[in-house]
What we know:
Blueprint: H1 2-25, H2 33-62, H3 66-94, H4 106-127
Helix pairs in contact: 1-2, 2-3, 3-4
Amino acid sequence: MHKIYLFIGTLLAGLAVILGAFGAHGLKKIVGPETVNTYQTGVQYQMYHAFALIMVAIMYERWQSSLLNYAGIFFIAGIVLFSGSLYLLASLKAMNKVGVSGIGMITPIGGLLFITGWVLLLIAIIKK
């Protein structure tokens, strides 16, 4: 499992760099600073949790724990829901399609998944 997390974590970190560059150079030309800030928050949290996933993979290689495995799953799901929803909101703003309701409600669910991943990681460390 650790190789999959290493692969996904590295892929997501690289993607965060690409998305961050787009936000800094391309997106700011078509949307306002508030939307760019929202987008950059998605990039920032994606990078943090891509690194967390790589950390989980390294730890999992040393000692297999279902808690570490679940932490990795929650980090990935959190990136998809938290960062993904922020990217989607910024994209909709860029296309002047701001009337889509419900997308903003996905972001806090992603945040809860991040928190759950960190709690699981902490419990895994304490149990070790």
